[in-house]
Design brief:
CATH superfamily of the largest domain: P-loop containing nucleotide triphosphate hydrolases
Bound molecules: adenosine-5'-diphosphate, magnesium ion
Strand order of the largest sheet: 3-4-2-5-6-1-7
CATH architecture of the largest domain: 3-Layer(aba) Sandwich
Strand content: 5-15%
Number of helices: 18
Number of domains: 2
Oligomer: single chain
Helix content: 25-40%
Shape: globular
Largest sheet: 7 strands, parallel
CATH class of the largest domain: Alpha Beta
Distance between the termini: 47 Å
Radius of gyration: 24 Å
Length: 464
Amino acid sequence: MTFESLGLHASIIKALTESGYTAPTGVQAQAIPAAIEGRDMMVSSQTGSGKTAAFMLPALHKFASEGDQPQTGRTPNQEAQSARSRGDRPRFKPAQPKMLVLTPTRELALQVTTSTDKYGAFMKRVKAVSILGGMPYPKQMQLLAKNPEILVATPGRLIDHMESGKIDFSQLQILVLDEADRMLDMGFIDDIEKIVAATPEGRQTMLFSATLDGMVGNMAKRITKDALIIQIASSATKHENIKQCIHFVDDLSHKNRMLDHLLRDETLDQAVVFTATKRDADTIADRLNIAGFAAAALHGDMHQGARNRTLDGLRRGQIRVLVATDVAARGIDVPGITHVVNYDLPKFPEDYVHRIGRTGRAGRNGIAVSLVNHAESMNVKRIERFIKQLIPVEVIEGYEPKRSASTSRPNHKPGGWKPGDNRNSKPGQRTFSKPNAPRKDGSSFNKGPRTGDAGATRRPFGER
Ligand code: ADP
Ligand code: MG
């Protein structure tokens, strides 16, 4: 399968070649032809599987093909310009985007815009801008005044501009909801409904989500028409290029010692450490800096400028350890991230999947370690049920927990994993692994009764 065979415009193929993309990913191969036909779709596929291009390439293709036609009509800006030249008082014309991409976070929005610039590098007349909370209004007004074809926005700020008449969706052709499940988690449902209601009935709608279960599936059905459902890989995706494991810890000081040890792994290039709270992210980043790691925190309380600087530092390799909360870490795509450490377990099982997806980007290998308190065994179980995989428990020499793992997980011994299976282990790695015995009953994890856990996937483990 090639990008040419998907029928994409020559200028897009050129950009993809320059970006080093040789073949479409699975989700791209399925979504692009249908999207070019104009179909609505609901897509769930693993993080890092190339969803951005799956919706952006067909959209750009459409605009490029329109661009090949002789242009009729004038853009609001051309009109505004000629109004000025006629000596009329310039009036602000609302932006009339052709495409809107809604994303849960600012980082993800910026990433989508950057990818769009890359994919559209050889196209004339296509401009994508991000409209984000935390960005100064005058700057946003300037961006909107350019009447961009593509708006990438977080819901809250977009609503502000809609309400003040700065955006007119009457020309909108394509609506994309990226990471829709996360937008709902973040409480954007009313904003989304409002935005959708302001767009034309005849639009094309594409929704992307980690899961199509529950609330997000219901919303997807409401806002799409005759949607093609693409489920490349469910939550069961094995993440085979990511080596996952659990280390049991007795207490906070054990956890901190373990973290320091893990971060000194010589195979580590860059790491993301996930914490449950913003305050912990700050505290741990400070502590790691004092300990000599180039660490920085990233969380939702930081200003946009500070967040961007941190992400730049991470991309440029100046920051080796990013200590982040779930919200802030969404969408981080830095190939140098070799390790993910769950200092705290995530609140939702699906966040576990997003977290570990920060490593092993673009086909590389990665390591994802969870530091787990004995009292959290149930939470581990829920994650394992969600990913339909057992996460092996490992013990590091000199860092053994006082309580053995098997007393913490009496009925829950991971099987099927041997040290030799560890595709990432390198000779001389200092950690040694002691996988638990295989399940005695020989049963597979999947055979057990699925006690309605699909519903439970939206349930937090409890506030911390
Ligand atoms: P998702 O949204 O599914 O998590 P992204 O769209 O962020 O995934 O893409 C993940 C990474 O894969 C990005 O670095 C992107 O540039 C890269 N990528 C996407 N499609 C391809 C492709 N066809 N070939 C090579 N790399 C790709
Ligand atoms: Mg994405």
